[in-house]
Each structure stands twice: as structure tokens, then as C-alpha cells.
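Reviewers asked in the last cycle whether our approach scales beyond single polypeptides. To address this, we selected a multi-component target totalling 529 residues and predicted its structure end to end. The input consisted of the following lines:
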Amino acid sequence: MSEPLLAVRDLHAWYGEGHALHGVDLDVFRGETVTLLGRNGVGKTTTLRAIMGLIRKRKGSVTFNGKDLIRLPLHRVAHQGIGFVPEERGIFATLTVDENLILPPVVAKGGMSVEEIFELFPNLKERRNSQGTKLSGGEQQMLAIARILRTGVEMLLLDEPTEGLAPVIVQRIGELLATLKKRGMTILLVEQNFRFAARIADRFYLMDHGKVVEGFPVGQLSAHTDKLHEVLGV
Amino acid sequence: MTMIFGIPIQALLGQLLVGLINGSFYAMLSLGLAVIFGLLRIINFAHGALYMLGAFIGYLLLVHLGIGYWPALVIVPLAVGLFGMAVERVALSRLYRLDPLYGLLFTFGLALVIEGVFRYYYGVSGNPYAVPTLLAGGTNLGFMFLPNYRGWVVVASLIVCVGTWLLIEKTRLGSYLRAATENPELVQAFGVNVPLLLTLTYGLGAALAGLAGILAAPVYQVSPLMGSDLIIVVFAVVVVGGMGSILGAIVTGYMLGLAEGLTKVFYPEASNLVVFVIMAIVLLLRPAGLFGRDA
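The resulting structure, written as C-alpha cells, was:
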């Protein structure tokens, strides 16, 4: 098998004195969509934040395209080709939709142009001069994803993109992720909505108590139903 | 003689002009303070000392090197800006993860050190700085006599304020700055070098203070105390405008300068107090300031 695009080994992270990750191991291969599953508070969001370097107190190894991310300053991580869409979306209130869209610097060739993005998200075009936070929750989520697509990153870290959104918007985000997957984007997704994740993921990692307890491909989903019930409480 | 509310119009316009000039300095200084507070969350107590440093560098360039006002107008902001960037890199950048009180205490200490050094070498009496020949004399406007240099100060400060506002509101660098004010970690995770942005921002604030200092040199005496005399009023301006609000700092700077000027005409005894009375009223009615967003 080829080398993983993202390889995480024995990753530990701390919030102050609180030990939040207890040795996470995971791989994401080029073009794959991988979902982290687990109950609230098991460390899924912390894993994404620790990969990006948003949590500085961490130990272990995170390599992306063969390069060690742990040693890089936070602002150099995105330039390796990895983009982050946070759970709270991070739309800036003092910036217009247009300004929010072009805020993240382009890190590599091959990103979408603003025109392509507006074709994909006509709502954003209509509201391009509005203040970013005046958009609906669904539109803000679209904007949060769209602005990363402009940068030309190879991989997206997506934290709970469907949280708090109406079913019709969730469906739209599902379609968007399917389109990105077809274009070859590698995605690491954190998602509570298991049904949503099951439709788009190639593989799953199950997290509990700050580490990965199991990993399996989508084809083995039914074989893991009992384990999912046990860990997810669903 | 034309009178308004029993006051000769010349006296009224004269005081309004004084108010407008003071307001120009309030606006430029509070603008720098607002820019620094917005991004660095540091209440820069050294701002008055940086303003004084600007005036003194201009004075020393003239006395020791024969470099006049116009070149100094470029050299001084650059020098004070670079000094500010060095201060941010060496000291302030180590304090961001601590309580904001540490930043306040550090800049307060820095102000005392800068002021102390200049007091040691130059005493507390002021040193005159001549008005540049090009702007000497005045213009008779018909209803009042306008000293040319004072007119220039008002125009120059307006250009600086509008220019800074455009830089922050209309450029890509400005959008980085505004976004980093809201969520610096996320902006950094997008690949923007936020530590460099912080250094540049403190440098910009310091450069604005230095520029205000060299503009002030021919109006006021160049003295080690000129910064500490002004800084308390400038803090009041920032509070009234809304901490961190760029537009608030500019508009409130001119407004409070004019209010001070008008008070000098109608009730001179209260002219030193009026800014603080307005601050108290604004804090009671609108704690976030006139242009501030409620927390």
C-alpha cells in the first residue's frame, strides 16, 4: 500500500493540565474520506486541532506528505496543503462575505477561483457584500468550506459540518463533499451524524477516551454495528 | 463686531481652531492606541512616550545633523515605528499568553524609562522647534487669522487618519488585521503569519505616535513631559470612541478637541475637565463607547 498522506502516531495533547489525547494513531490516504466517530468529549475535535497545531501542548508525530507538522509554527501548517474548517465555522463579523472568502492565503495551485466557487454556491454570490455573520447557519458553513477550497489545499479537516443545520442543508453539504471527493480531495471528517457520515466516508475510526479504539472500511460497517452501539451509545 | 451668544465670533473661531488642532493630535494618537489595542489587546501606556520620542528625534535631527522638518516627517515615523517593532519583538511578544495587566505594566514602565532618559539629558523645560519656512506666517480668512502651520497640522492629520482607516478597512492587509482582531488563532491556522502582523501593528501604532510628535514639535515645546501631559486625555478619547474602534478613535478625537475648544470660550474653568465629564457620561449611558460593539 502507498504511503499515507496524513499519518498520526501516538499523538498526545493537553489543555492546560488536562490530558485530552492519549496516543492517537491514524492514517489518511490520498483521495480518501475518513470519518472520526465517537461520543461527545472523546477527543475528536481535539485530534483535528492538535493535527493543525491549534493545540501547542502536544507530543507524538504528525506527518503530512512526509513532512513533520509538529515542528512547524502554526502559520506554516496550512502552507503544506492542509485546510481546517472549525466546528464554530469561524466566519468573521467585521469582514464581508467576499472578504471572508478571500481571507485564507492561496497555498498551492489548483484551488477554485472565486467565480467557480460562486457557481457552486450561488447564495454566497447574491450576498457577497453582506457581513459574514449575517448569513444563515447553512450559508456560513458553505462559506467556511468554500474559502478553504480557494486555497488549493490537498486535504480538508472538517469538524462537525452538519451540526445544528436543517436536513435540506445537511443534504446539500453531503452533495458538496461528494463533489469534492470526486475531484480528488482528501477529507478527514469529524461527525456526530452517523447516517450522514456513512453515506460519504470510505473508512471510519472509532474514538474513545482520547484514542482510536478501532478502524474499519465502509464495507465492514454492518459487522461493527454492535461496537458502534456500544461506543456511540446509539 | 459680530457676536454669537455674547461672544465675539473671532474669539469663538480662534478657540475652535485650537480645539481642532488639539483634536488632530488626539485623533492621531488615539488611532494608534486603538489599532494596537484591537489586535494586541495591550493598553499601550508607552504611547505618550513614543509621541514625545518622535518630537525629540525631530529636534535632535535638526540640532545635531541639520536635517530639517520635511525629511524628518519621513525619518521620524520610520525610526519610531522600527523602535516599536523592536520593543514588540523583544518584550511584548513574550507577554501575550499572560494576563493583559503584564502588557499594561510593561508599557507603563517603558514610558517611565523613555521619559526618564530624556529628562536626565534635557531637563523638563521645553525646547523650541521652528515652524518650517514654507509654512511660516498666516492667512487672513476674512473672519479670522489662520497660522499656516496650524492649518497644515489639521490637513496632515486628516490625511493620516483617512489613510490609516482606508488601509484597515479596504486592503487585504487590513482584512487580515480585522480578522486577527476577532480570532488570531484561526487566521494563523489559515496560513497568515500573525506574529509578524502583531509586530507590524505595534510598529504602525508607534509610527503614528512618532508622526504626531514631529507634527506637534513646532506647535508645542519639545519637552520630555509633552507625552504624559497628553496621554490621559487620549485614553479618555479611546474610551469614549470605544476601545479598539478605529473610526471611533478618529471621530471622537476631533469631537472632543472641539468640545474642549468650545468650553474654553463659554466656561474656561471647565476646559480641562470637559473631556473627562463626557467620558463619565458616555460610560454611564453606553459602556462600550460611542462606536464600540457591545461585548
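The CA atoms of residues 264 and 271 of chain B lie 5 Å apart. We regard this as preliminary and will revisit it once experimental data from Aim 1 are available.
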